[in-house]
Amino acid sequence: VSAALKQGQITPTELCQKCLSLIKKTKFLNAYITVSEEMALKQAEESEKRYKKGQSLGDLDGIPIAVKDNFSTSGIETTCASNMLKGYVPPYNATVVQKLLDQGALLMGKTNLDEFAMGSGSTDGAFGPVKNPWSYSKQYREKRQQKPHDEKEDSNWLITGGSSGGSAAAVSAFTCFVALGSDTGGSTRNPAAHCGLVGLKPSYGLVSRHGLIPLVNSMDVPGILTRYVEDAAIVLGMLAGHDPRDSTTVQDPVKPFTLPILTDVSKLCIGIPKEYHLPELSNEVRALWSKAADLFESEGAKVIEVSLPHTSFSIVCYHILCTSEVASNMARFDGLEYGHRCDTDVSTEAMYAATRREGFNDVVRGRILSGNFFLLKENYENYFIKAQKVRRLIANDFVNVFNSGVDVLLTPTTLREAVPYLEFIKEDNSTRSAQDDIFTQAVNLAGLPAVSVPVALSNQGLPIGLQFIGRAFYDQQLLTIAKWFEKKVQFPVIQLQEFMDDYSSVLKNEKLTSVSLKQ
């Protein structure tokens, strides 16, 4: 798309209008909470002037993007999909948002999520659940022998995964070409796997968290959702680096993430963690995981089984540390400074209680209660401190494996393909999160980079993704290997022709195979 803009085959304004048209056509997906149409068109106008002068800012100039609604955006409502922050308009941009805008990106809007990013389905937000675009794809419909989309009749739509489901749906439905998510335990990689996208969780500290409304400060990382690995690498190169407003970011300057073309994998060592062979893993995912390992082996790479012995403790460890930090972070929402405030004026305490009861959903309140329990004086040593020690053991497991000569780990991203909404909501939020993030949470506990890459369609015509995990701050190596793998597997593009009629002009150029809708 960037090439088309540079060659004058399409203007930023035309591209922006096409994406805005698609956002309206796919409104039933509920991917966006706020659409910033006026701002996007103004940014497109500015971009067009730069292109006419031959002063393009780079690969992102004029490219439509979307941002998860837990990143602060100056002058645009930022709700975290909650009643608590309905109407809250930040006075500043998150660092990552500002960096993208400085590169000339067009902000199409803010995307839907689970309330305060607590969930794995994008079904628990105050603005309703997000629908997976693959529910309406030709590939899935043909397998189910369904009629084309009729939103009134269709109740068996699929979840996107979460919590960055809105961002994943936005990219998957071609309403933008890059979207920011956040990743605390898999919230970018999980929806990427379910929506047939690349979902990148960078190394902790590589990308600034300033302006990302915190869930778990020690695990949160801004995530990147794109259709291709190369795109994710380009965006990461623009976002990475020290930020004086985030003391956890790397101090050294970061070089651009240009990915070398990998032709020979014979010097690589790929690790397969034996603890990830879970009985709950679907047969299809297990078979694709095995095929992927065989692919590396057939090309000369060394593929070995490795052990991450403390993996079985990661779910409990994650739950204790996550809810403890949530309890602390959510304390700021008291109805005094910003966000929702109830009408109760009996006493300050009554106002606090009523505000938080009205502003938070059951999931958020449940996690606050759990976290405060773990932080009680009599429980602190037995729960929080013990979980921190286990976290160190989990991190050391990865260090030991990488020190043994392994370059990357290859694992599933999720237990199975996307499931219908009605099936998903049979379980409670905590159970769902524990199951759906089982392969992804340990990466956040250890602060490592990981990327989910779409591999193939299941028998039902739905995407399945596999995860590559790298050594801390070896993001470039991780993405180089992921790009090689992506090229080998040739994942098919989603076919959403009934929404795409007016979009074909963007994609007429045969050279633009990377965005072709008719593969």
TrEMBL record:
<dbReference type="Pfam" id="PF01425">
    <property type="entry name" value="Amidase"/>
</dbReference>
<dbReference type="GO" id="GO:0016740">
    <property type="term" value="F:transferase activity"/>
</dbReference>
<dbReference type="GO" id="GO:0050567">
    <property type="term" value="F:glutaminyl-tRNA synthase (glutamine-hydrolyzing) activity"/>
</dbReference>
<dbReference type="GO" id="GO:0005524">
    <property type="term" value="F:ATP binding"/>
</dbReference>
<feature type="domain" description="Amidase">
    <location>
        <begin position="17"/>
        <end position="137"/>
    </location>
</feature>
<keyword id="KW-0547">Nucleotide-binding</keyword>
<feature type="domain" description="Amidase">
    <location>
        <begin position="159"/>
        <end position="479"/>
    </location>
</feature>
<dbReference type="GO" id="GO:0032543">
    <property type="term" value="P:mitochondrial translation"/>
</dbReference>
<keyword id="KW-0648">Protein biosynthesis</keyword>
<dbReference type="GO" id="GO:0005739">
    <property type="term" value="C:mitochondrion"/>
</dbReference>
<dbReference type="InterPro" id="IPR004412">
    <property type="entry name" value="GatA"/>
</dbReference>
<dbReference type="InterPro" id="IPR000120">
    <property type="entry name" value="Amidase"/>
</dbReference>
<protein>
    <submittedName>
        <fullName>Glutamyl-tRNA(Gln) amidotransferase subunit A like protein</fullName>
    </submittedName>
</protein>
<keyword id="KW-0808">Transferase</keyword>
<keyword id="KW-0067">ATP-binding</keyword>
<dbReference type="InterPro" id="IPR023631">
    <property type="entry name" value="Amidase_dom"/>
</dbReference>
<dbReference type="GO" id="GO:0030956">
    <property type="term" value="C:glutamyl-tRNA(Gln) amidotransferase complex"/>
</dbReference>
<dbReference type="InterPro" id="IPR036928">
    <property type="entry name" value="AS_sf"/>
</dbReference>
<dbReference type="GO" id="GO:0070681">
    <property type="term" value="P:glutaminyl-tRNAGln biosynthesis via transamidation"/>
</dbReference>
<keyword id="KW-0496">Mitochondrion</keyword>
<keyword id="KW-0436">Ligase</keyword>
